[in-house]
Fold these 2 entries.
Entry 1:
Amino acid sequence: MDKKKIIVGLSGGVDSAIAAYLLKKQGYEVTGAFMRNWDAIANNDISGNPTLDEPMCPQEQDYEDAKKVADQLEIPLLRVDFIKEYWDNVFMYFLDEYKKGRTPNPDIFCNKYIKFEAFLNWAKAQGFDQIATGHYAKRVDKDGMTYLYKSFDQNKDQTYFLSQLNQSQLSASIFPLGDIDKHEVRAIANELNLAVASKKDSTGVCFIGERHFKEFLFNYLPMKKGPIVDINTDKKIATHDGVFYYTIGQRKGLGIGGLKDYPDAKSWYVCKKDVKQNILYVANDENDEHLLADSALISDVNFNAIRPENGQQIYAKFRYRQKDLGVKIFLIDENSVRLEFDQPYKAITPGQAAVFYDDNVCLGGGIIQEVYYKNRKIN
RNA sequence: UGGGGCAUAGCCAAGCGGUAAGGCAACAGACUUUGACUCUGUCAUCUCCCUAGUUCGAAUCUAGGUGCCCCAG
């Protein structure tokens, strides 16, 4: 039997490097691919971009690192761009959501449309059997289905970002890091003497990078000042730069401090956005009732493998790196569900992903559409 | 132009003669492949509106300015 031909997305980081190494060790015929999906200059990513003035743009630096890794592992490295696809399928969506006053999660769409669609299709066309990535996630084949499980390293688990993948995407993918933790990844990289063994984990929007977020959005969304209103008194207490720059539960960046009428003032938190009237509502207590929700309507629902039962008790994650929270799931139709929370949860934000779990099984996920508290829609 | 009150960091605010609390904001770092939250750290030193004085020593007392507020006109 021929060796399976695998192409690994090499980002220039340590995770994908070790993913490639493990596959090679397992006997696959491994090729690396470096993807570039964001052109800062062409995409007008100017304000809030800390790396504009650097002699080598960060993607080229990452490419150099990926090249070093490929050379050390003795695998070929291909290069491919999906700049247009990224702009059309991820970034436009991202901006549209912001314009609606919601808080999108671009990386979930990046996986759905770029890494596991554009890239996957490209790889197949190049004659590869499967693609692999350095995601911390586990693929489990059982009963003729391909399931997505949380990674062994619970702290790094990235199934949240993979929740929109379907059967054909999952079955064409390999996640070599599913059974080891980050320390081990670093340790292997050190043993191999990899150039990127100690490279800092990358953060920020995938393929774009770290940005001063509000300034980054200034590039694409016009500033539009309006009132910040105390939701408990309905009084204007400050001015904002445009409701879409803020997200529910946000504390930093409001610039509200030391108000005469609030001698015991604590920190202020965003609890509601009125896009139409351009009003930002805030509450003066991190435990304010206006931050709570007890049920939500989830749209764009995808189940990775099987559909849960109607009314089943499961867990949901409403933000990456947030604890799994107990919910009951009610199936409404093919693409939407309603979640009833075991108890009120804080800062549930429309536009963000709700990802469903049954213990370690990632069932799938969707986009938070409407949020309710005590049967009243609060967004 | 009579009386009273107040002037402390970006904002709110302690201090009442002994060598500038605290909170919010901001900034930095940690955490993090969204965006938040969270945690840690920094943040008044010819300084407490200005000037002069009393005192060993004043943000704190005195006098005079300046500005703002309230009451009465």
Entry 2:
Amino acid sequence: MTDGRTRRREDTRQRLFVAAVELIAEQGFSATTVDDIAARAGVAKGTVYYNFESKTVLFEELLRHGIGLLTAEFRAAVTGLPPREALAALVRAELDYIRRYRAFAQLLLSEMWRTNREWQQTLRLLRGEAIEVIAETVRAGVASGDLPADLDVRTASSALFGVGLVVAVDWLVFQPDRPIEDVQEALLGIVRRVAQT
Amino acid sequence: MTDGRTRRREDTRQRLFVAAVELIAEQGFSATTVDDIAARAGVAKGTVYYNFESKTVLFEELLRHGIGLLTAEFRAAVTGLPPREALAALVRAELDYIRRYRAFAQLLLSEMWRTNREWQQTLRLLRGEAIEVIAETVRAGVASGDLPADLDVRTASSALFGVGLVVAVDWLVFQPDRPIEDVQEALLGIVRRVAQT
DNA sequence: GTTTTTGTACTGACCGGTCAGTCTAGGAAG
DNA sequence: CTTCCTAGACTGACCGGTCAGTACAAAAAC
């Protein structure tokens, strides 16, 4: 399983992911060429096609990997916490994730609301999984009376997800010199106020 | 000035704008071909290049036109209103605009945070102009004591702009059957709470 | 009022470059 | 020697941009 070969291959795939995510974040999927990805990863073009079926599949696996990680961190963040604390933990987890994987966050923000792309279904599905974790928390909060009863669970959940994304990426792109902790504070403040019963 | 020729040409340019904005909203700038745009507008490819210098210039003029309109509506919305009412009017104006030009809003959301694209400077500039209107309102509110003194004007303004965009487009793309008035209510509620002194 | 000229809007075949994907020779690991 | 993987030249489709030519309205000439 973790013999030299598998480890080496896993390493190559990882380098390709990193290269692809950076380039696609900057330029978008269509404007990014496979040659660029291979060059930045320091491998030959053939290696890309040895490791991935196609450019689209590489991107889909990238999305799966990236959002899977986010979903996992969401789950880890909320386990065992009461609703209102869990909500704050989710905001923190999202921003923490964005800080660590800023290129992926930027990519997500740009490609999330597209329609008519081959990988759109995949992305929609993955988005649903991540938001479901938020929705579970919100639902529990509404049921227990910790959150306002008139809160629309689906809307609130997707809004929370999107707002964190846009505010953080906006900060990263347009005011990159300022610390992300400030965004976190601002967002927590907003969520706290909105969550008031 | 408004003879047959100029009117005809203006009409063609308008049709090209409409076709381009829809296609780019769905697929992105790079994935949209000039042939597609021409076909949807019902003109020959050459006509695109008769009316616009290049694909990039067409897109830049599109951005200028679209954001210019938004900025104008922002200005019209705030004139003569006291800070807190002006802020609510801005939210209403933004959502009203997004409802009317949903494709353009979707396009903006997807291309706004890109880096390393030829037209990035243009977009950055235009974004600045639109946000400046918001910033003036916030600044006046902070100065007059109508808004919290510790509000960071630049951050608050760009956050307000971005949040309206994501929440509205998210709704349009993922829950298109529900009325946008609900989003407006939700957003106004949030802004009202955050703006509390 | 008719004919000729001119300028403008548009057309679509075509060109050159680019890019996703293929193929095969060869290097590394065991 | 065999197996697994990588390199990078190559191919064919596609796409941005060009250009010689058409259509047609309005002015100019008579």
